[in-house]
Design goal:
Low-confidence stretches: none
CATH architecture of one domain: 3-Layer(bba) Sandwich
CATH topology of one domain: FAD/NAD(P)-binding domain
Structural class: alpha/beta
Oligomer: single chain
CATH class of one domain: Alpha Beta
CATH superfamily of one domain: FAD/NAD(P)-binding domain
Strand order of the largest sheet: 6-5-11-12-13-10-14
Helix content: 25-40%
Largest sheet: 7 strands, mixed
Mean pLDDT: 90
Length: 385
């Protein structure tokens, strides 16, 4: 069997890395997490968790706490800049089908709940983890039995393991986002507005605040001295609540990231006693809202396969066989979805897309979401006491 009290080093303390650490800790591993930032650089944003993400959190023992802190998404959908609906989200139908609604929560709160499930001293912030150093061991400490590389879209661990892989590429989209500084009056729990070359959306939170995001088709690396002023001008003629959300935001809270993805899939998520997880393994565009959910699936599956034994390399080979086909299929689907959203700019293409969405029965929309969100996690054995 895999060592009941083996040692694991997790490189990266984002959602995927923390979830992996929780799963390993719950199944008997001694875990250390290295995170180079004091706090991840996306904690000023929000996240929608589909049923597969919530089920993974249930398996990790933190699903109840996340539900208590989150806001279920029952109302909303997609619309045009002048407010005309394109499709409606039937959150109640999703809840009936999957047992849980999509939920919205600040990323910082999700990070906090995952950290609270780890023992004191497990997470070391302000420390950059190197794969070579981890495999050799640091100082008098022996090399760990397992290394989990969860170091994000620009993973140095991935580059070390697969030096011939081209790495992440720019998707053609850049995203600005923030959480409002105060509660905002909103008519929908979740909403996307699609215009030519741009998308604006929001996620409502339990405390009345909201996260908004603006996705633009733009060259990479462009930054603005006053991003809120740029967005007010760009979305000046779009229907509320766009202006209301921007007005409730402090300039210093706006985050700006270019969206990169792994277009070339990796040949494996494992090498020896190293497992790649989350964006390091399958960075995808956010068009399906599945990036974090897939990382959570990775974390639960990794812990379950290691608990099943018989040794680390065999368990990691099974992890790769389970996770690579599914996560890479979701990444491809997210890329296709992006081509039908804000990336469209030609009036004819936009008109055809809008007409097709308006004619699509609500059941078709629900089935499209179920295709990716209907996932059953493996059972994690309880930690040996």
């Amino acid at each position: 069997m895999a060592p009941a009290n083996g040692t694991a080093l997790v490189i990266g303390g984002g959602i995927g890395g923390l979830a992996a650490a929780v799963g390993l800790h719950r199944t008997g591993w001694e875990v250390t997490v290295l995170e180079r930032f004091a706090a991840p650089d996306d904690t000023g944003a929000g996240i929608s968790l589909a049923a597969n993400g919530i089920r993974a959190l249930d398996a990790l023992g933190v699903g109840g706490a996340v539900r208590a802190a989150a806001r279920p998404q029952y109302t909303g959908g997609t619309r045009t800049p002048d407010g005309r609906p394109l499709s409606r989200m039937d959150g109640a139908a999703l809840e009936r089908a999957l047992g849980t609604p999509v939920t919205g929560i600040p990323r910082a709160e999700l990070h906090s709940l995952l950290r609270s499930a780890l023992p004191p001293g497990c997470l070391r912030t302000g420390v950059t983890g190197s794969l070579d150093t981890a495999l050799r061991g640091e100082g008098p400490a022996p090399a760990p039995d397992l290394v989990v590389a969860a170091d994000g879209v620009r993973s140095a661990s991935r580059a070390r393991l697969f030096p011939d892989h081209p790495g992440p590429v720019y998707s053609g989209s850049t995203v600005l986002r923030a959480i409002t500084a105060e509660p905002v009056d909103l008519d929908a729990d979740f909403e996307l507005t699609w215009g030519p070359g741009a998308e604006f959306g929001h996620i409502a939170f339990a405390d009345g605040r909201a996260e908004w995001h603006a996705v633009l088709a733009a060259p990479p690396g462009v930054r603005h001295a006053d991003p809120l002023a740029v967005l007010r001008q760009r979305f000046a003629h779009w229907q509320e609540p766009v202006a209301r959300l921007l007005a409730a935001t402090r300039p210093e809270d706006v985050l700006h990231h270019d969206v990169h993805e792994l277009v070339t899939p990796l040949p494996s998520y494992a090498a020896g006693r190293v497992a790649l997880l989350g964006d390091a393994a399958h960075a995808m565009t956010p068009n399906l809202g599945q990036g974090a959910c897939q990382a959570l699936e990775d974390a639960v599956t990794l812990a379950a396969e290691l608990a099943a034994g018989p040794d680390v390399p065999t368990a990691l080979a099974r992890y790769d066989a389970v996770r690579r086909p599914r996560s890479q299929a979701v990444a491809r689907a997210a890329r296709r979805a992006g081509r039908l959203g804000h990336r469209l700019s030609h009036p004819v293409a936009v008109s055809l897309r809008n007409g097709a969405l308006r004619l699509a029965p609500s059941g078709v929309v629900v089935r499209g979401i179920l295709r990716h969100a209907d996932w059953t996690p493996p059972r994690l054995p309880a930690r040996a006491m």
